Amino acid sequence: MRINRNYLNLEDSYLFSSIAKKVRDYKEENPEKRIISLGIGDVTRPLVPAVIEALSRAVLEMRDKKTFRGYSEEQGYGFLRQAVCNYFKKKGVVLSDQEIFISDGAKSDLGNILDIFGTDNTVLIPDPVYPVYVDTNIMSGRKIIFMRGTADNNFLPMPDNNVEADIIYLCSPNNPTGAVYSKDELECWVRYALEREAVILFDSAYESFIQDKNLPTSIYQIERSKECAIEFCSLSKTAGFTGTRCGYTVIPKELIRDDTPLNKLWLRRQTTKFNGVSYIIQRGAEAVFSDIGLSQAKENIAYYMKNAQIISDTLRSLGIWFTGGKNAPYIWLKCPNNMSSWEFFDFLLKEAGVVGTPGAGFGNNGREFFRFTAFGDSEDVQSAMRRLLKINL
Ligand SMILES: *Cc1c(COP(=O)(O)O)cnc(C)c1O
After folding, report:
1. How many domains does the chain fold into?
2. Cα of 234 from ligand 1 centre, angstroms
3. Which residues line ligand 1 (CB under 6 A)?
4. Residue 262 lies in domain
5. Which of 171, 172, 170, 179 is nearest to 322 (CA)?
6. Which tens digits make up the pLDDT trace of 188-203?
7. What share of the chain is helix, strand, coil (3-state, %, to 5)?
8. Looking at the domain assignment, is residue 300 inside a domain?
9. pTM (predicted TM-score)
């Protein structure tokens, strides 16, 4: 018997446990001080009324023999896949409901999708980025090449024709940098992928935070992208579903590799290893896409974006370089005074009682940067910023 030894190549994830320990130690030494966290990558606003009503109705349906539901339809209920299609239609993207797969969230799909690709593919991953892409590929032993996000390219690495890759991850808006690719930039990526018959895995978990009407909210707004891209979407950040769990993945019929439609492979994979999201949750998700649901969800997003504005204004007045915050709930700043991201973490905790996330946790290129999230309570964000203005930065 042998274990999957690729797991031994994973680096221990010290990020959140190290943060928690440092905060705990600080609290013990300074019991009177209230710590404010701008480090959480989780939403804090509750589910909107339209969703709660839909969930409640669905619960009641389950108690009646006539309306009770067992196993879901294979790709998710038709009513939800149709609602997703309508949502895409508003972005100018026409999809059929057979191209939509409902899941319990984007993280699972981003990891599971690798089942349908050979392990001898080379993977191209931005650095810094959401750590899931790297770890899931290490687990399956694929060769990884990193592309550097730096202040010079606004943390939006572009294709390099000298680099050969088969699987390309793009996260736009990006976690942790908040950077968003323009249409022109995504066109370059689509061209690069088509030339190499590569596949783009496009993570659009934060698409609903994009405020600038000129920025693409789906890769399918780019011509010929259906021939080379899979898109991963989630209601986690859009509608506060981090605990409720629902996402959707799009695999267009046009996406064919090795003479095989990837849509068909994914359907086979999902029907074998996954039995769907609960009926109740799918009804709640459907309500997100209703007019009233969308407008209520938008209010929560506006709340977070106001926090982002407050953080951005403060950093600007302090003369600290940052990106993000305009079309994403993340603000990514250059640590002042040449501090490393962990030095800045310690400094901020000690001097201001404010917690953020060290950029080193998202890749080597994040070592001099720091992430604030806009997901906190508005009052907390304002007091945190008042504290920042008082210390010597
Ligand atoms: C939060 C997040 C997701 C969403 O994950 P879920 O499993 O749907 O909660 C996906 N990608 C990125 C980059 C994220 O930050």
Report:
1. 2
2. 7
3. 105-107, 130, 171, 175, 203, 205, 234, 236-237, 242, 247
4. 49-292
5. 179
6. 999 999 999 999 999 9
7. 45, 15, 40
8. yes
9. 0.97
